[in-house]
Amino acid sequence: xxxxxxxxxxxxxxxxxxxxxxxxxxxxxxxxxxxxxxxxxxxxxxxxxxxxxxxxxxxxxxxxxxxxxxxxxxxxxxxxxxxxxxxxxxxxxxxxxxxxxxxxxxxxxxxxxxxxxxxxxxxxxxxxxxxxxxxxxxxxxxxxxxxxxxxxxxxxxxxxxxxxxxxxxxxxxxxxxxxxxxxxxxxxxxxxxxxxxxxxxxxxxxxxxxxxxxxxxxxxxxxxxxxxxxxxxxxxxxxxxxxxxxxxxxxxxxxxxxxxxxxxxxxxxxxxxxxxxxxxxxxxxxxxxxxxxxxxxxxxxxxxxxxxxxxxxxxxxxxxxxxxxxxxxxxxxxxxxxxxxxxxxxxxxxxxxxxx
Length: 356
Ligand code: UD1
Description:
Strand order of the largest sheet: 3-2-1-4-5-6-7
Shape: globular
Bound molecules: uridine-diphosphate-N-acetylglucosamine
C-alpha cells in the first residue's frame, strides 16, 4: 500500500527577505491556532538586523531554522548556498508541503529545492506578472508558478495570467495575504512627523543599478521636494549604488533620509503622507488599502488592481513622465474597496489545504 501524506501533515514555510516576513506572519499564526505542524525556515537572504531580525521580533516570528548567512556572495553563489542548506533541512524535516511567498530570490530557491526533492509546492501570491523581464522578480514569479502544485492567487487577473501560461490546475483565488497583516498592525496613532509630507521608497535593481535611470528619478524628486519634504528610508541596495555612482550627497539633499523602518513605522509614514512615491510592490498595495495617493516609479505593475480599484498611478522612470504624473495626480485621500482584501486570506489558504 502506498502511504499518501496529507498536505497539512508537516509544512515547511520559507522566508528570507524583508517583503516575505509580513506574508508568512499571518500564515504561521494561523497554523499555530489550527495546530498544524510546521517549521519556518529563514534563508538569510536579508541579513542586516533592520532588514530581517527586527521583523521577526515585530511579527513575533520564531524561525525554526536560520540558514547560515550568504552575505557577500554573488546571486548565483547565494542560490547555490541556500539550495544546499535547504536540502539538509528538508531531508531532516521530511515536509509534506513546502510553502513559498512572493517573488524574491528565496521564493525561487525554495521552489527549486522542493521540486528537485519531489515535495509538493505551494506559492502564495502566485500569478502576478509585470511582463518586464529586466526585473529579477519576474523570472522568480514565472519559474516558481511553473513548479507549483498549489497556486494561491490574490485576484482574478492573476488566474488569467496563469491561464495564458497554460497553468490551470491547483489555482485558488484567496485574496491578498499582506492585508491580513496590515489590518492587525495599522494603528490610529499620531502621524510620525508634523505637517504635510511625501513618503518615498526606492530600491528596485532596474531603477537604482542603472545610473541613468537613477539620475532621472532623483532629478524628478528634486522638483517635487519644492512642494513638500520627502522622507526616504534608505534601502541597503540604494545606499550601495548611490555610493558607487556618487549620488549619496544628492540623495541627502533631496530627501530626509531615514534608516530602514519597521513595518509599523512604514505603515504610519504611508498612512499620514499626502503622497507616496515608490517602486515597491507591497507599498502599492498598502497605499491602495489606506486610500493614500501613490505614484509608482516604474513603467508597469504586476498589481494592476491597485490602479483599477486603488490609488495607484504608474509614473514611469523618466524625469518628465514622473513630473507629468505628479502634475495630474489627485492628492485627496479616498476610500477603496478591493475584493478579498479582508484579512481572511490565511484562513482561506488553510481551508483549501485541509480539503485536499
Ligand atoms: C530584494 C528582492 C526585492 C524586494 C527587496 C525588499 C530579490 C530579487 N529582490 O531586493 O524583490 O523588494 O528585497 O527589500 O530577491 N543587503 C544588505 N543587507 C541586507 C540585505 C541586502 O546590505 O539585509 C545588500 C546585499 O548585500 C546586496 C543588496 O543589498 O548587495 C541587495 O540585496 P538583495 O537581497 O540582492 O536584493 P534587494 O535589493 O534587497
